[in-house]
């Protein structure tokens, strides 16, 4: 039995916790103010879709395809993106809360992360080459054996990245953010002249 194909549809204020999303292939669809919390999105395919003001907290993403999907103003706590279908995985986040989520071992090159919270997020062994982190909060986020070469962290904060355990060549940091690269040394940096 094939997946249902839905194209160009807008889903507005739908509570998918009560009426589960039909397993299908969604292309150029908009999901606005929908509740997906604790729902099963396994095997669904989203292509060129946008999620705005949605709650996706604790949704299951087993083999979920996210291809050129934009998330704006979404609550996305505890998501395991590493369970997604890795083929063509392409996402962007603007003003989202992704705290307690995991991007373990994912290739997310050239991804845009904007005005988002990544508290206690796992980026272990993630390839973030050339990604832009614009005004993001990384409090207690884990970067270990990650590739953040050419990534831009200039306007982000609260990150702790060990240069000896991550590939950071040509990554860009602000002068005020340098402390996040030296955390393991437990030193104080005085910024007063």
Give a description of the structure.
The chain has 193 residues and is an all-beta fold. It has two domains: 1-84, Pectate Lyase C-like (3 Solenoid), CATH 2.160.20.80; 102-193, Pectate Lyase C-like, CATH 2.160.20. It has strands at 4-7, 10-12, 24-27, 30-32, 45-47, 50-52, 65-67, 69-72, 91-94, 112-114, 132-134. The protein has a seven-stranded parallel β-sheet, with no helix packed on it. The protein has a four-stranded parallel β-sheet with strand order 1-3-5-7, with no helix packed on it. It is elongated and about 60 Å long. The protein starts with a strand and ends in a 59-residue tail after the last strand.
The overall pLDDT average reads: 95
Largest sheet: 7 strands, parallel
Per CATH, the superfamily of the largest domain is E3 ubiquitin-protein ligase SopA
Number of strands: 11
Name of the CATH class of the largest domain: Mainly Beta
Which runs of at least 5 residues are low in confidence (pLDDT < 50)?
Answer: none
* Count of helical regions: 0
Beta-strand fraction estimate:
15-25%
Could you give the distance between the termini?
69 Å
- Sketch the topology as an H/E string, one letter per element: EEEEEEEEEEE
Given helix and strand content, the structural type is mainly beta
Net shape: elongated
User: How do the strands line up in the largest sheet?
Assistant: 2-4-6-8-9-10-11
CATH architecture term of the largest domain: 3 Solenoid
As a percent range, the share of helical residues equals under 10%
Radius of gyration over C-alpha positions, nearest whole angstrom: 18 Å
Count the domains.
2
Q: Examine the coordinates and then state which fold CATH places here, giving the name of the CATH topology of the largest domain.
A: Pectate Lyase C-like
